[in-house]
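Duplicate of earlier report; Sugar transferase input re-posted below.
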Amino acid sequence: MAPRPVGIGGRPALPHVTPAGLPWSRRAVDVVVALGLLVLLSPLFLFLVVLVRTVSGKPVIFRHQRMGEGAQEFTLYKFRTMRQDATGSVLTSSRDPRVTGTGRLLRRFHLDELPQLVNVLRGDMTLVGPRPESVNLARRFPPECHWMFRYRPGLTGPCQLRSREHAALLDGRPDPEEYYLAVMVPLRAELNAELLARNTLATVARYIARTLWYVLSAAWDRSGGGPSCELPGGSTARRAEER
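Output:
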């Protein structure tokens, strides 16, 4: 039996449901929405490819290994937002100097996440679920939080919609990874437990609507772009992003 998630301050979080793969209705919604958005947003995709290629060079797409459903690794896709020579912590704060000017704009409006629609089509991810974690960090999670890796990660969800405020919590930390693992991961576990306890089609629709509002609100939110659990300094590109 999977361990019961523990919430902030030792408070027990809501019990998580037992995963049995996505029901056909959820998978159908994932495919229809992801495919529809890829077609609808294809001109924007082309523009972003040209923009990133012109400003930052190759590679345009950052590929990063994440922990997926059943603790199986998968390759996550994002538009590259960091300098190619960036090194340092696996995490990025809201004012990380490794992020390019163009990358900061993409992150602010979460446009760097759009290639993850391909991950949704492939079945690596779902539309709404826990945030996908980098393999490096996932292997260091507190044992009581490992239960999250039984579930399919989501393009959006409660943690993703707190990305700007969570990123700010890392600013100025002497050891941001230790703070993330000790303080923020239990918080994320509690938020994900609440989501998974009532993860219905109505919940999916509600989170999609909330995500649209969250992205649009970036136009007047001064806190900047979202957090990043990326792996900088890798031997291949993103090279530093989870991001």
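The first helix runs from residue 24 to 40.

Merging into the original ticket.
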